[in-house]
Amino acid sequence: MDLQEDLISILKFYKSLGIESIPLADSFKETVQKSNLISSEYVIANAVKINLSSEEKAQALKSLLEEIGDCQRCKLSKGRKNIVFGEGDVNTPIMFIGEAPGRDEDIQGRPFVGQAGQILTSLINNMGKEKGFNFQRDDVFIANIVKCRPPENRDPQPDEIASCIKFLNKQVEVIAPKIIISLGRISTHTLMGLKTPLNKFSISEARGKFFDYKINGMTIPVMPTFHPAYFLRNPKDKHLTWSDALVVLEKLRRTE
Ligand code: SF4
Predict the structure, then answer these.
(1) pTM of the model
(2) Domains of the chain: which residue ranges?
(3) Among 139, 142, 179, 234, which has the highest number of CB atoms less than 10 A from its own CB?
(4) Which atom of ligand 1 is nearest to the CA of 71?
(5) For residue range 14-58, what is the model confidence (pLDDT) as tens digits?
(6) Which of 111, 124, 67 is CA-nearest to residue 85?
């Protein structure tokens, strides 16, 4: 498998230069497939990603943070105190994606640290004790669709999401989680790539059923569930998100 390792290291080098894909001649594809070495471009693309070391992932996220810089790419820059990049373990198999920072998150520059954040932390820590798992909040990665707080905690608008989503996509590519849990209707609507108006989309109907998020050669299952803030008003529905979380853990257990 020396050839495979050489190929992966060449592809990593190209990737570090910002090259995201390499077109393959049909004759080369046939050779690769006959040799049973690597079966397709898809596998090659994933081989690059799943072989990123912790250091490479951390470096890639650091570079992304530098690229975001003092971002003024959308109007949310006007009212924010801090950009909330996201945080957690880059090697996590589970990534949680919410919609936007709130007041506490904006002040602290960290995701999900207010009241809703406490509910999310409790959910994650309880998940980490189930089905033979052993993890806590610090062991997963948490991010949002947009990285700056919308005024008065309003929903992020389509132009703001369009400006910011590339940063989240890059985080997903680098971390390459096995599963994403999408928190709430805006995150789910965005990751599903729906063009229908948000007010016609119901998280109550979408939750509990996996959909595929395809990004740059990877297909990642996403479990939609309620945003933790929903439980501040409807604590009796917490069991619904807990049942979604158990489905996620079962799927994760089967992939290990
Ligand atoms: S929300 Fe995203 S695109 Fe808009 S200013 Fe903040 S970091 Fe930039």
Answers:
(1) 0.82
(2) 2-50, 54-255
(3) 142
(4) 8
(5) 666 666 555 555 554 455 444 444 333 434 444 444 568 999 999
(6) 111
